[in-house]
C-alpha cells in the first residue's frame, strides 16, 4: 500500500481549522496529514467532490454484553439483512444489531472512522473489548457505567471526593475505559429491587445519596481527573412524558461547577428525555425548552438520539425504562442487571409514522438540532440502535440540510403530531460545514481526540470523500443526492490507507482502542487500593486480582494519559 | 403453460437449497436456462442439471406452470419458496421448509416431508399424503409472526408445534400430532383428526384448534372449560362432535378456543361438572 | 524444592468459573489445589491422565504418530475439499480459539456448532421468543431471598454454586442462609432437594404443566384442575404466594427442564413466568451452564455471526435454524462429509445415528485427552488445557468474562488450541486462494 497519497482539489470541510468548502489539496504520509509529499505519491483526483475528516460517532451501541444479548434475542433481525463473504471481507448479518465485522465495514463505507461504545458495565467490559477488537477498521473506545456503582455512591454519600476520584481513575485503568458514563443515576440500583425513582433529590435506598449528588459528584471527579471527555449523562426519567424538565434540571444541577469556557456535562440522546406533556395522549416536544437552555448555557452539550421510522432494537443500561417499554409494547424483553454497578434492558421496537407518540419523537430530535444554535454543542446520533440503525445517518443529514426533505416526511406523519410540533415552521437548514461539525469535528473535540475530526497538519489521516459537488448542487433542494452521497463514500481513508472505495471494503485492518489513565498521587492510590481490598469481596463475586483487564488484553491499545489534580 | 419434470439423478448427501425451484422461477424460461439455474449443494454452487434430469413437456396445456419432482428430496430445503402461482408435485420426500413464505399456487407431496412445511405461508395450498415434521405453518425463530393465510392438508401424522405463532389460514392433520399444536397462535384454525400428545394452544391469543382424537391428559391448566358443542367448523366444513370447548390461554389473556372430541377423551368427563353449575 | 503457589486461579470445569482457587505447583506439576470442589480438584490434579502427547494420523486401521505440520496439512486439505464440513465442540476452550474456529468454518463454507445444541439449546430457543430477565450472580448473592433450582442439581453439577452465589452465600442484603428460602423442583429427591425449605416433586415430563399452573396462580387466575403435574393445586398456589411475596427471586434451571418433554417450550414457559413475576416483584432466571466456556462459545459465535450456535456458512453468509443446522441433526441426516471436533467428545454423547455418521466421514479431533471420539478419529491433534497449560478468556454462566492463567507448561511439544487453529486457518486460506 502506498505510504503517500495526495487528494487533490476537493471541497474541504474542516471546521476545527475553519475551512468551509475551500478547494484544497490534502497530503498524507505514514498515516498522517502532512504539508507535502513526493512526486510518486498516489494521486486521488477529488475535483468536484467533498472531503471531510472521517466521521466520529460519540454514542453508538456496537459492542458488549447488552449488544450481544440483543443479537441473540433477535435472529429474525439478522435474517433480513446478510453480508456475504468476499475475498476481502467476512460475512455477517446486519440491520439493527449488526455483527461486529459488519459494523466496522458499514461505518467505514459511510466515511466514519471513530466510534465510541457509550455504555459498558465495568464488570463485563472485557466482553466489550472483545467485541471492539473484533470490529474492523474503526478506532474505538468505551465509557464505563459509573452512575450506580456502589463504591462511588458510598464515597459521594460520605463526602470523600478525592477517594472517589481515585476510584474512578482506578476504574478507568481497570476497564480500559475512556470516560465517565452515567445512566439513570441511582435509578438502576433501585431497579435492582424492581423499583423506580422519579426525582433528582430522591435518596437511593441503602445508599442515602441522590441522583443529583451522583451527577454533581462525578462532574467534580471528572474535573479532578482531567479526563478527556466530560460526564456523559443519560438522565433519569427517560421515556416519561414531561421529562424535559428532568433534562433541564440535570443540566442545571452542575451549572455552578462550570468554568464558563467549555461544556462540563453532555446529555445524551436528548430526544428520549425531551418529552413535554403529562401523558401519552398529550405528549409534546420539549425540544424548544431544552434548546433555549442549551443556547443560554454553554456548560452543556447534547446529542440527538434521532428516531428513524421502522423496525429497530432498543437497548440501554436503563433497565427500568426498558421494562416499562416491554410493558407498553408487549414485545419480548431482556434484562441484565450487573452486581454493584448497573444494569441493562433490550426490547425490539417499531417506530411508526402514523403513531402519534413516535411522530412526536421523530420531531423532537430534529427540532433540537435545528433550534440549538451552536453546532459545536449538538452532535448527530440516533443512539444506535435505539432511535434507529446507524446506517440511517444519511437520512438524518438530509433532514437537517433540507427543509424539503423534512416537509416530505412531515406530510406523511400522524396528523395530530404534525399540528403539535414546531418543526414544520422551522426554516433552518444545516450547511455542509455544520454537518461536518456535528458529525466529526465537534464530537472529536468533545472527546479531546487531538488528532481526529480535522485535517490539520499532524492529524490522523482519517478522511471521507463524498460524491457531492457543493458548487453545482443546490443541496437543500436535493435531499436524495445528500442521502446518496453520505450513504457511501467515494473513498474512506483510515490512518492514511484506503479502507473503502465506493462501498468496497479493502480489507480487515484493525483500529486503536483509546482509553484513559489519570494518575492520582501515589499516596491516594495506595489508600484507595487498601480500601478497595477491604470491601471488594463483599461487593463482587470475582476476586479483585481478576477484575482489572490486563494490558495485553486489547488488540491495539492507545492510552491517553491525564494528570489528576489530586 | 408447460409441465416440467425434474427427475433426481443422484443420491443427495449434502444439504441442497432448492429455493429457485418454483413455478415463478421457471415461467417463460427455456429449458437450457432452467438447467443452468444455480443452486447450493453443501458449499458448492451447482447447476440444477447436475442434480436433475429436467424435461419440459410442451404437450401439457394448462394455465399454469407445473413442476413435477421425482425422487427423494429429504435433504432439500425450500422447494416452492415464495411461489405465487402454479403447481409443484413431488413424488417422494418433500424436504424441509417446503413452500416457505408461499403466496399462492399449489404444492402436492406424494410422500412425507420434513419440518417447517409452509413456514410463514401467506396463501396457496399444500397437500401431503404422508407424514410431516415439526413446526408446520410456523414462524421462523424469533419472528413471532407465523402463517398468515393459505391451507395445509396433511393426510398422515405431524410433529410438534403445528401452526406455531399462526395468524390466519388453516392446517388440517388427518392423522396424529405431537405436542404443542397452536403454540402462541393468534388466529386461524388447526384441525387434528387423530390423537394429539397434548399441550394444545399453549400461550395462544386467538384462533381455533379442533381435535377429534385423544389428547392423553387434560388441557393446560391455563384454559377454562366453556361448554360442549355438537359441532366444530373449519372453513366451510362442519365436523361432528360433540366437543368439549375450552377458552384460553388465560396466561396470555387469550381468547382462543379448543374443541376436544368428547367420545375420544373419557379422561375429560370430569369437566362436565362445570356444566351443572 | 521450592513450591510456587498461585492464588485466584480461574477454574475451567463448569459454568461457575470460580476464580479463587489456590494452586500449588511443584516441579512444574500441580500438586495441590485449595478452595476447589471435587470436580475442579479432579481436573487440576488429573490433567495429565490419558493425555495424547503427539499428533496421530490413521494409516490403514492404525493411528500412527506424525507431526503437527503434516496433521494440519492433511486436515486443511480435507476440510477445504469438503462440501459440508462440520466444526463442533468449542465449549471447553478459550474465546480466542473459538473466534478462529468461526473463521475456519466461514472460510471453508461449513457448519459451526457447539455443545449448546445438546444442552441449553432449548434455553436459547426460548429466549428468541420471550426474552430473559436476568443478572450477574452477585445480584443474587446480594439480594435474593428466594432461590429455586428447577431440574438442576447443583450439589453435584455445580458444587460451589450455592455457597458462592446463592443460598449459602453472604450478600450485602442477605447475610445468611436464614435470610433466604430454597425451593427445589424436580422429579426425584436429589441431594440438592434434601437441602430445600420446600421440595416439589413433580411427575416426570410434566414440568410444562406445572410452570403454566404456577403462572396462572401468580396471576390469580382460577385453575380448574385439582392436581397438576402430580402436585395438588393448593401446593401450587402456596408456591405462587411465596414467589409473589419475595423481594427478589431467582430461578435456576438445568437439563431437567431443557431435556424433558417440551424442551424449548418448557423454557419459554419459565421465561414467561419470570417476566410475569416482574409485574409483582423482582425476579430473575438463569440457566445452569455446564461446560466452563459454553457461554463463551455462544457469545463469540453471536458477535461474529449474529447467532449463538448451529451456524451454517455453506452459502457464504451465516444461516441459523437448530434442527436443521445443528450438529446432531446434520449428522443424523448424513449431511456432513467431514468433521473437526474441538474440545468435545460427541461420540460419547450423541444419539446413535449421529455418532455413527461421524465415524463414517473423515474425523479430526483437537483434544488434550484420549476419548471415544479421538479413538474413532482419522487425525488427532493434541492440545493444551486452557486455564492450566495456557491462558485464554472464558465466560462465566452469567456473562462475566475472566482471563484464565497459565499455571504449568503443557507436555513437551503439545500446542495450544489457538496455535493449532491459527496454523490450520492459514493453511486453509492458502489452499482456497
Task: Determine the fraction of residues in helical runs of chain C and give it as a percent range.
Answer: 25-40%
Name the strands of the widest sheet of chain C in spatial order: 5-4-20-19-18-6-7-16-17
Relative strand content of chain A: 15-25%
Q: What's the alpha carbon Rg of chain A, rounded to whole Å?
A: 22 Å
Most extensive interface, residues per chain? A-C, 63 and 62 residues
Features:
heterotrimer, A: about 575 residues, Urease, subunit C, domain 1, five-stranded parallel beta sheet, 18 helices, 26 strands, B: about 280 residues, mainly beta, 13-stranded mixed beta sheet, four-stranded mixed beta sheet, 3 helices
Kindly summarize this structure in a few lines.
The complex is a heterotrimer of chains A (566), B (277) and C (433). Chain B is mainly beta and 277 residues long. Chain B has helices at 23-26, 31-35, 273-276; strands at 3-8, 16-17, 38-41, 44-47, 52-57, 66-70, 76-77, 87-91, 106-109, 125-128, 151-154, 170-173, 189-192, 208-211, 224-234, 237-248, 256-261.
What topology emerges from the helices and strands here?
The complex is a heterotrimer of chains A (566), B (277) and C (433).
Chain A: E1 4-14, E2 19-29, E3 32-34, E4 42-45, E5 50-53, E6 55-57, H1 65-73, H2 75-79, E7 82-83, E8 92-93, H3 100-110, E9 112-120, H4 125-133, E10 139-144, H5 150-157, H6 161-175, E11 181-183, H7 187-191, H8 211-225, E12 231-234, H9 244-253, E13 265-267, E14 275-276, E15 284-285, H10 287-296, E16 300-303, E17 310-316, H11 319-329, E18 333-337, E19 345-351, H12 356-371, E20 378-379, H13 393-401, H14 403-410, H15 415-420, H16 432-446, E21 463-466, H17 479-487, E22 491-494, E23 497-501, E24 504-505, E25 513-519, H18 522-539, E26 557-563
Parallel strand pairs in A: 1-4, 1-5, 6-9, 9-10, 10-25, 11-12, 12-13, 13-16, 16-20, 25-26
Antiparallel strand pairs in A: 1-2, 2-3, 5-21, 7-8, 14-15, 17-19, 18-19, 21-22, 22-23, 23-24
Chain B: E1 3-8, E2 16-17, H1 23-26, H2 31-35, E3 38-41, E4 44-47, E5 52-57, E6 66-70, E7 76-77, E8 87-91, E9 106-109, E10 125-128, E11 151-154, E12 170-173, E13 189-192, E14 208-211, E15 224-234, E16 237-248, E17 256-261, H3 273-276
Parallel strand pairs in B: 1-6, 2-7, 6-8, 8-9, 9-10, 10-11, 11-12, 12-13, 13-14, 14-17
Antiparallel strand pairs in B: 1-5, 2-3, 3-4, 15-16, 16-17
Chain C: E1 4-9, E2 21-26, E3 29-34, H1 38-46, E4 56-59, E5 62-65, H2 68-81, E6 85-89, H3 95-108, E7 111-114, H4 121-130, E8 131-135, H5 137-143, E9 146-150, H6 154-157, H7 161-164, E10 181-186, E11 198-201, H8 207-219, E12 227-228, E13 231-232, H9 233-245, E14 248-253, H10 255-258, H11 264-277, E15 282-287, H12 294-305, E16 311-312, E17 319-320, H13 327-332, E18 338-342, H14 346-349, H15 352-360, E19 363-367, H16 372-375, E20 379-382, E21 392-395, E22 401-404, H17 417-432
Amino acid at each position: 500500500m502506498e505510504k503517500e497519497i495526495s487528494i487533490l482539489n476537493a471541497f474541504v470541510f474542516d471546521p476545527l481549522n475553519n475551512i468551509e468548502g475551500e478547494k484544497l489539496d490534502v497530503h498524507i504520509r505514514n498515516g498522517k496529514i502532512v504539508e507535502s509529499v513526493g512526486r510518486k505519491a498516489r494521486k486521488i483526483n477529488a475535483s468536484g467532490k467533498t472531503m471531510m475528516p472521517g466521521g466520529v460517532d460519540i454514542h453508538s451501541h456496537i459492542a458488549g454484553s447488552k449488544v450481544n444479548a440483543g443479537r441473540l434475542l433477535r435472529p429474525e433481525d439478522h435474517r433480513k439483512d446478510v453480508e456475504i463473504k468476499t475475498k476481502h471481507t467476512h460475512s455477517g448479518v446486519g440491520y439493527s444489531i449488526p455483527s461486529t465485522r459488519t459494523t466496522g465495514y458499514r461505518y467505514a463505507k459511510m466515511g466514519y472512522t471513530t466510534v465510541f461504545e457509550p455504555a459498558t458495565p465495568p464488570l463485563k467490559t472485557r466482553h466489550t473489548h472483545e467485541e471492539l477488537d473484533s470490529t474492523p477498521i474503526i478506532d474505538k473506545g468505551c465509557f464505563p457505567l459509573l452512575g450506580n456503582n456502589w463504591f462511588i455512591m458510598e464515597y459521594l454519600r460520605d463526602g470523600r471526593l478525592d477517594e472517589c476520584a481515585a476510584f474512578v481513575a482506578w476504574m478507568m485503568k481497570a476497564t480500559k475505559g475512556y470516560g465517565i458514563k452515567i445512566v439513570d443515576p441511582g435509578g438502576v440500583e433501585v431497579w435492582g429491587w424492581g423499583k423506580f425513582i422519579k426525582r433528582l433529590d430522591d435518596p437511593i435506598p441503602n445508599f442515602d445519596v441522590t441522583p443529583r449528588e451522583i451527577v454533581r459528584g462525578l462532574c467534580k471527579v471528572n474535573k479532578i481527573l482531567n479526563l478527556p471527555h466530560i460526564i456523559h449523562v443519560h438522565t433519569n426519567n427517560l421515556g416519561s412524558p414531561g421529562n424535559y424538565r428532568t433534562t433541564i434540571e440535570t443540566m442545571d444541577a452542575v451549572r455552578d461547577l462550570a468554568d464558563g469556557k467549555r461544556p462540563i456535562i453532555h446529555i445524551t440522546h436528548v430526544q428520549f428525555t425531551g418529552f413535554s406533556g403529562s401523558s401519552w395522549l398529550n405528549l409534546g416536544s420539549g425540544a424548544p425548552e431544552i434548546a433555549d437552555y442549551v443556547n443560554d448555557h454553554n456548560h452543556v452539550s447534547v446529542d440527538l438520539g434521532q428516531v428513524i421510522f421502522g423496525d429497530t432494537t432498543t437497548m440501554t443500561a436503563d433497565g427500568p425504562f426498558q421494562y416499562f417499554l416491554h410493558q407498553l409494547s408487549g414485545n419480548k424483553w431482556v434484562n441484565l442487571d450487573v452486581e454493584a454497578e448497573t444494569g441493562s434492558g433490550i426490547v425490539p421496537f417499531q417506530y411508526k409514522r402514523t403513531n402519534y407518540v413516535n411522530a412526536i419523537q421523530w420531531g423532537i430530535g430534529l427540532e433540537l438540532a435545528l433550534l440549538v444554535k451552536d453546532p459545536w454543542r449538538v452532535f448527530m446520533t440516533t443512539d444506535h440502535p435505539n432511535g434507529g440503525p446507524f446506517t440511517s445517518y444519511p437520512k438524518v443529514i438530509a433532514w437537517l440540510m433540507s427543509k424539503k426533505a423534512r416537509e416530505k416526511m412531515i406530510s406523511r406523519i400522524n396528523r395530530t403530531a404534525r399540528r403539535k410540533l414546531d418543526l414544520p415552521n422551522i426554516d433552518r437548514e444545516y450547511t455542509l460545514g455544520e454537518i461536518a461539525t456535528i458529525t466529526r469535528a465537534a464530537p472529536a473535540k468533545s472527546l479531546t481526540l487531538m488528532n481526529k475530526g480535522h485535517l490539520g497538519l499532524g492529524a490522523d489521516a482519517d478522511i471521507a470523500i463524498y460524491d457531492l459537488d457543493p458548487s453545482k448542487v443546490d443541496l437543500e433542494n436535493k435531499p436524495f443526492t445528500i442521502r446518496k452521497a453520505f450513504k457511501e463514500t467515494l473513498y474512506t481513508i483510515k490512518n492514511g490507507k484506503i479502507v473503502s472505495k465506493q462501498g468496497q471494503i479493502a480489507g480487515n485492518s484493525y483500529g486503536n482502542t483509546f482509553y484513559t489513565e489519570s494518575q492520582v498521587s501515589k499516596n491516594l492510590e495506595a489508600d484507595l487500593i487498601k480500601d478497595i481490598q477491604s470491601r471488594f469481596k463483599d461487593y463482587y463475586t470475582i476476586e479483585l486480582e481478576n477484575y482489572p483487564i490486563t494490558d495485553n488484553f486489547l488488540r491495539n491499545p492507545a492510552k491517553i494519559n491525564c494528570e489528576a489534580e489530586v | 403453460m408447460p409441465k416440467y419434470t425434474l427427475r433426481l439423478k443422484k443420491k443427495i448427501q449434502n444439504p441442497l437449497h432448492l429455493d429457485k425451484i418454483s413455478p415463478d422461477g421457471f415461467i417463460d424460461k427455456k429449458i437450457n436456462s432452467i438447467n443452468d439455474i444455480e443452486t447450493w449443494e453443501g458449499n458448492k454452487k451447482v447447476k440444477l442439471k447436475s442434480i436433475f434430469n429436467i424435461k419440459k413437456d410442451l404437450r401439457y396445456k394448462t394455465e399454469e406452470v407445473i413442476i413435477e419432482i421425482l425422487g427423494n428430496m429429504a435433504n432439500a430445503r425450500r422447494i416452492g419458496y415464495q411461489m405465487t402461482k402454479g403447481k409443484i408435485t413431488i413424488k417422494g420426500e418433500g424436504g424441509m421448509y417446503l413452500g416457505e413464505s408461499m403466496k399462492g399456487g399449489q404444492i402436492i407431496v406424494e410422500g412425507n416431508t420434513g419440518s417447517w412445511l409452509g413456514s410463514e405461508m401467506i396463501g396457496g395450498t399444500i397437500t401431503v399424503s404422508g407424514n410431516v415434521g415439526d413446526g408446520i405453518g410456523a414462524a421462523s425463530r424469533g419472528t413471532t409472526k407465523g402463517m398468515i393465510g393459505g391451507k395445509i392438508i396433511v393426510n398422515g401424522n405431524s410433529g410438534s408445534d403445528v401452526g406455531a405463532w399462526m395468524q390466519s389460514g388453516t392446517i388440517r392433520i388427518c392423522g396424529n400430532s405431537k405436542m404443542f399444536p397452536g403454540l402462541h397462535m393468534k388466529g386461524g384454525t388447526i384441525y387434528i383428526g387423530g390423537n394429539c400428545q397434548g399441550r394444545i394452544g399453549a400461550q395462544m391469543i386467538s384462533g381455533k384448534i379442533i381435535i377429534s382424537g385423544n389428547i392423553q391428559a387434560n388441557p393446560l391448566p391455563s384454559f377454562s372449560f366453556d361448554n360442549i358443542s355438537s359441532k366444530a367448523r373449519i372453513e366451510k366444513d362442519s365436523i361432528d362432535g360433540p366437543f368439549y370447548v375450552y377458552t384460553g390461554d388465560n396466561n396470555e389473556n387469550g381468547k382462543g378456543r379448543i374443541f376436544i372430541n368428547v367420545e375420544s377423551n373419557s379422561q375429560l368427563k370430569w369437566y362436565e361438572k362445570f356444566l351443572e353449575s | 524444592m521450592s513450591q510456587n503457589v498461585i492464588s485466584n486461579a480461574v477454574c475451567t470445569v463448569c459454568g461457575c468459573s470460580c476464580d479463587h482457587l489456590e494452586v500449588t505447583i511443584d516441579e512444574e506439576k500441580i500438586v495441590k489445589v485449595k478452595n476447589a470442589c471435587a470436580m475442579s480438584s479432579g481436573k487440576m490434579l488429573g490433567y495429565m491422565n490419558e493425555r495424547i502427547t503427539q499428533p496421530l494420523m490413521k494409516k490403514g486401521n492404525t493411528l500412527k504418530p506424525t507431526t503437527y505440520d503434516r496433521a494440519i496439512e492433511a486436515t486443511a486439505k480435507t476440510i477445504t475439499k469438503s462440501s459440508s464440513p462440520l466444526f463442533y465442540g468449542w465449549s471447553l476452550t478459550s474465546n480466542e480459539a473459538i473466534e478462529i474456529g468461526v473463521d475456519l468454518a466461514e472460510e471453508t463454507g461449513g457448519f459451526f456448532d457447539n455443545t449448546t445444541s445438546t444442552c441449553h439449546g432449548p434455553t436459547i430457543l426460548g429466549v428468541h421468543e420471550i426474552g430473559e430477565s436476568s443478572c450477574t450472580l452477585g445480584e443474587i448473592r446480594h439480594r435474593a431471598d428466594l432461590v429455586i433450582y428447577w431440574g438442576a442439581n447443583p450439589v453435584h453439577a455445580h458444587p460451589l454454586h450455592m455457597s458462592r452465589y446463592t443460598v449459602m452465600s453472604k450478600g450485602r442484603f442477605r447475610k445468611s442462609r436464614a435470610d433466604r428460602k430454597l425451593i427445589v423442583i424436580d422429579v426425584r429427591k436429589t441431594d440438592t432437594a434434601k437441602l430445600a425449605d420446600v421440595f416439589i416433586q413433580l411427575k416426570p415430563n410434566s414440568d410444562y404443566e406445572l410452570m403454566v399452573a404456577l403462572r396462572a396462580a401468580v396471576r390469580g387466575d382460577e385453575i380448574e384442575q385439582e392436581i397438576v403435574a402430580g402436585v395438588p393445586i393448593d401446593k401450587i398456589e402456596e408456591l405462587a404466594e411465596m414467589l409473589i411475596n419475595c423481594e427478589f427471586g431467582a430461578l435456576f434451571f438445568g437439563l431437567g427442564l431443557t431435556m424433558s418433554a417440551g424442551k424449548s417450550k418448557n423454557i419459554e414457559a419459565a421465561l414467561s413466568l419470570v417476566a410475569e413475576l416482574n409485574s409483582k416483584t423482582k425476579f430473575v432466571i438463569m440457566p445452569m451452564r455446564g461446560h466452563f466456556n459454553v457461554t463463551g462459545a455462544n457469545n463469540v459465535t453471536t458477535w461474529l455471526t449474529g447467532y449463538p450456535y448451529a451456524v451454517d456458512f455453506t452459502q457464504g453468509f451465516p444461516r441459523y435454524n437448530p434442527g436443521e443446522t445443528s450438529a446432531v441433526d446434520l449428522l443424523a441426516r448424513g449431511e456432513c462429509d467431514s468433521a473437526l471436533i474441538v474440545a468435545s467428545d460427541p461420540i460419547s454423547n450423541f444419539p446413535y445415528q449421529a455418532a455413527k455418521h461421524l465415524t463414517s466421514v473423515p474425523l479430526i479431533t483437537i483434544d488434550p485427552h484420549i476419548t471415544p471420539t479421538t479413538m474413532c478419529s482419522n487425525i488427532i491433534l493434541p492440545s493444551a488445557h486452557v486455564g492450566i497449560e495456557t491462558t485464554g478468556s472464558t465466560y462465566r454462566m452469567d456473562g462475566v468474562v475472566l482471563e484464565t492463567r497459565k499455571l504449568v507448561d503443557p507436555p513437551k511439544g503439545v500446542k495450544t488450541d489457538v496455535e493449532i487453529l491459527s496454523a490450520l486457518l492459514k493453511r486453509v486460506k492458502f489452499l482456497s486462494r
